[in-house]
Amino acid sequence: MVENSDVTPHGGARGANTPSNLRDLSHDELAAMLTELGAPAFRVKQVEGWLGRPEVTSFEAMTNLPKALREELAARYTLASVELAATRVSKDGSRKYLVRCADGVMVECVGLPSSGRLSVCVSTQAGCAMGCAFCATGRSGLTRSLSAREIADQVAVVRGDFGLRVSSVVFMGQGEPFANYDATLAALRILNAPGPETIGARHLTVSTCGVIPRIRQFSKEPEQFTLAISLHSAVQQTRNALMPATRKYPLTRLHEVLEEYAERTHRRPTYEFAPIDGVNDTNSEVEALVDFCVGTLCHVNLIHLNALEGSPLAPSPDAKVRSIRARLERAGIEATIREPRGQDIEAACGQLRQRLEGVGF
Ligand code: SAH
Ligand code: SF4
After folding, report:
1. With contact defined as beta carbons under 8 Å apart, do 232 and 274 qualify?
2. 220-241: string of b/e by CB count within 10 Å (b at 16+)?
3. pLDDT tens-digit profile, the chain (361 residues)
4. What is the pTM of this model?
């Protein structure tokens, strides 16, 4: 067993980048550290089993590990996890959670049950630096990025509350996943790891505002994770106004990288498009959207805009949304109108946290 507490699990000096929270170790780091401590290989799975349960915050609770190993781990690592701070239940069955990280930072996640299946929406950052005009998260700026375990633990919190197996996860809560790429990928891999709770790669979806270099990197990952792009306008000027931080990733280059993505992966990215009255639902906007999509592998999700307090942006009337779908379908583009869910619990990105911070829960 390692005697010297200045020695890292890998045998080198403990550097600034060495996680002190056991939950922040990757699978390989954990395996190397346990080997170093003289533990047999099967302990890795046992420890990972405990780490997948956010309610387990003491090494003593890991009752299937020998006492000496538990003490060794406790001397080297903390085990802080996320905890549930508040829950709101919608009339439609969806539940929204406010989750507190060990340092007090709060993030949101949502559970959406439907006919025996449970989808979970997780946050990848506390806040977001992208500042999209229609988004509550964008209003508050970025607090910090989440660790892989903080992202994956949100799924465990929702699973625990519903007592159901999670069938799919969307990375569509607060934050820009591709501004926190490594932790996002590591979280996807934790969720996709073999085991009783495993979630298939195709049922794990990452949504990005369009960070081009990361879309390219994502297309080269070996797993078949699903990609969604928040498009919201195919007219550069409109998109610049709605999503100011995407200016450096212009639509022409976004289109190119999405074609590359489809060619390389043979997978169909989803384009998220929230029709906004008089802004991106005009004839010229809809024709630009058709031009952007036609001939490429994609699926357009027409989502309901959740209007923010004090914002001039309002959702398009239902008839207009239906006419956009009809126009896309006439052009041979797959499109779905997403029914809004959880409106009574402010399930849109960032809204719950903003409200709770204003009034105290
Ligand atoms: N940053 C990533 C993922 C988080 S946002 C992204 O932008 O894709 C998740 C989704 O919620 C995105 O499609 C985003 O455009 C959408 N969204 C944000 N605010 C919204 C609102 N007020 N109403 C409806 N959808 C919203
Ligand atoms: Fe950030 Fe996505 Fe909200 Fe834009 S829509 S501010 S990228 S979380």
Report:
1. yes
2. eeeeebbbbbbbbbbbeebbee
3. 333 333 333 333 344 556 688 988 888 999 999 999 999 999 999 999 999 888 888 999 999 999 999 999 999 998 888 999 999 998 888 999 999 999 999 999 999 998 889 999 999 999 999 999 999 888 889 999 999 999 999 999 999 999 999 999 999 999 999 999 999 999 999 999 988 889 999 999 999 999 999 999 999 999 999 999 999 999 999 999 999 999 999 999 999 999 999 999 999 999 999 999 999 999 999 999 999 999 899 999 999 998 888 899 999 999 999 999 999 999 999 999 987 776 666 655 444 444 433 322 2
4. 0.88
> Does 131 reside within a domain?
yes
> Residue 324 domain-assigned?
yes
Does 360 reside within a domain? no
Nearest atom within ligand 1 for CA of residue 350: 19
Ligand 2 center to residue 350 CA distance, Å? 9
Active-site positions? 108, 349
Which atom of ligand 1 lies at the shortest distance from residue 171's CA? 3
Tokens describing residue 212 = 């081009």
135 C-alpha to center of ligand 1: Å?
A: 6
Quick one: which of 205, 179, 180, 181 has its CA closest to 192?
Answer: 205
Q: Are 98 and 359 in contact (CB under 8 A)?
A: no
d(CA 116, CA 94): 13
| Ligand 2 centroid to residue 177 C-alpha, Å | 10
CA of 246, nearest ligand number:
2
- Domain check: are 124 and 68 in the same one? no
Residues 274 and 327 in one domain: yes
Residues with CB under 6 A from ligand 2: 128, 130-132, 135, 137-138, 174-176, 209, 230, 349
- Domain residues for the domain of 41 are 22-76
Is there a single domain that holds both residue 298 and residue 187?
A: yes
Return the ligand number nearest the Cα of 271: 1
